[in-house]
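>> received
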Amino acid sequence: MAPRTTPIRTAVVGAGGIAQGRHLPALQSLGNRVEIAAVVDMDAGRAREVADQFGAPHSFGEIGEMLAQVRPDLVLVCTPPGSHTDAVIRSLDAGASVWCEKPPTLSLAEYDEILTHEGENGPYASYVFQHRFGSAAQALRRQIADGDLGAPLVGICHTLWYRDAAYYDVEWRGKWETEGGGPTMGHGIHQMDLLLSLLGDWTEVSATMGTLGRDVETEDVSFAHVTFANGAIVSVVNSVLSPRETSYLRFDFADATVEVEHLYGYNNSHWKWTPAPHANPESVAAWAPTQDLGSSHEVQLEELVSSLERGERPAASGSDGRRVLELAAGLYESAITGRRVKRGDLTRENPFYWSMNGSPHEISRTTPILKETAGA
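>> returned
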């Protein structure tokens, strides 16, 4: 496929806070590489207002009409989780690639259904996992691949956030059927994706979870012990009950410890490399990233647009985007059944393949694109 030379024609579906605060500014940051062609929202008035604000010539109250009239190259899906699958599949079937907010879908079954609507050379569906794209994470990923830090041994991946009772007044939050899970799916999934992008495939998970402080169907806290194919063992905690909020990841290698502590986004200043006692202290200078790109929507979207311009599959799509959803499913199965779960257990015969709480569930493409938009 020849490299693209014309601007990528984009449309944004869902005109709420995450679209206005993150996605549309990220598109604007790319200048003439993209064209913001349309905004879609069930509230047609809001769609028109946001379209005017960001210079989009078209607005719609329904995705089908937009796809038929605008024929975008790329659709950004900023709606609640329960409507992701429908919006993504309809966009792919119309020939548009997709960048969809987290969590990708409500189940592995829905994710795999989306894959059947991709083409061999596109269009592709990719997902918002911006934390893996910051320069410090990319530098660490190269160091791990090159063996610069020694074998990975021990890890911590903690998303300790706070959401009060009013946060769950939004009708789709805190319910298995419309959100797919609690903080494991809606909050910690960002740090879990970063973890997996660094350490690779997981093999087993043992977990527990509880609903301790919020009136929700799902968990409001989960704890997991995860074993990786490379032998590393990692503690994963996801909470919305933690007044001192933090996102903390730590990786202990044979020759160094690497840490990052931030809240909703990092730059290089949030990271720390500490050499082991036997290692050369000057190694830290060599390990430091040479760029300082934060973990932003802008950075991931630039990577995505560059991939589409080259006619290549973007990161955080296909099997690369599926891995974190697979870990969430294994975590939920272990917590609900009390059993240790192997990655290979998550087949079509497993009820947790079809829904995150293991309940009977059919893939639905009829969930409406709800007015309230997604957000952390």
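>> The CA atoms of residues 18 and 375 lie 6 Å apart.
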